[in-house]
Amino acid sequence: MTLYRLLPLLPVLCFGFLLAACESPLKKVTYPDLRFSHLPEIHLNVARIEIVEQYRSPLRAPNVEHALPLAPAQAMRNWAKDRLRAMGTSGQAKFIIIDASVRIEKLHKKEGFEAMFTLDQAARYGARLEAKLEIVTAGGLGRGFASATATRQRTMPEEVSINERDDALYRFIEAAAKDFDRGMTANINRHLAPFKRAP
């Protein structure tokens, strides 16, 4: 086919290329697993540590923790694995995840003339991380527990890209997990000092 005969087809070909470019999917962003191994270990005078996930996500709205780039429950499991160490010869500790939920609430948007000049916050996310560390020594001779709860909220503006939203939600849960770390560490030092063991 000569170049002369191709000329009428150029607009169609260009439109096809543009359409293909518009339909190219967003590059999927991967996020690192949140770890706490850079922090000092908490040595407990027990023979073993069990992680119990008591919280069960309903896997439906308004709960969205199962769809986040960083699940709160995973962050809390990692905390227990990285920071708690069994250094005794008897007894046990249980790290119980009581709540690891994130709920979304749709927010009211402005309407009419005002809406043309306002970027509304479209949704509010609320996270709650709650856990308890129980300790039972050999023969039931001693018991103790410490608990901590971390809650955070943040809003999300409308018209944000999927990658922007996921990045914001990852940082949101990361901040909540760090709040939990500070609270649980302080309460272990306050309430479980007799059950701690020097390195």
Number of domains: 1
- What sequence of helices (H) and strands (E) makes up the elements? HHEEHEEEEH
- SS elements, strand count: 6
Q: Pairing-aware structural class of the strands and helices?
A: alpha/beta
Shape: elongated
Question: How does the major sheet shape up?
Answer: 4 strands, mixed
Strand content: 25-35%
Spatial order of strands in the largest sheet: 2-4-5-6
Alpha carbon gap, first and last residue: 81 Å
Describe the structure.
The radius of gyration is 25 Å and the shape is elongated. The strands form two sheets. Strands 2-4-5-6 form a four-stranded mixed sheet, with helices on one face. Helices cover 30% and strands 29% of the residues. The protein is of the alpha/beta class and 199 residues long. The longest helix has 30 residues. It starts with a helix and ends in an 8-residue tail after the last helix. It has a single domain, classed as Double Stranded RNA Binding Domain. It contains four helices and six strands.
